[in-house]
Design brief:
elongated, 5 strands, alpha+beta, Double Stranded RNA Binding Domain, 5-stranded mixed beta sheet, 3 helices
Amino acid sequence: MKKRILQEQLDASRASVSPVTETVSFDVSIKATEREGKWIAVTLETGIIAVGDTEQEAMTRAEKWNMAWMSVQKANGYDAMKESLDARGISFRLDSPTRAGDEISVRV
């Protein structure tokens, strides 16, 4: 019974959250290293790891995973997104809703 009540409360809180619809511009640092013939790209702020046959492939995958991660943050609403980004030291900017998609800048 207690578990059901908690789930209902969680569902209710999610229903009241308005996802962020604006484009979110943010900067993260991605470092790539080669190990045993594979390239590994690690995002310092989010902990996202991507592997590729080339440095460019690993970096591109890391960028895509970071954009997917941001989509999840946006779905949680502004307050939760801001809290998550602040906790990781990620600065961000909300852009006009007329621009499509998330943007990512990479500092190497």
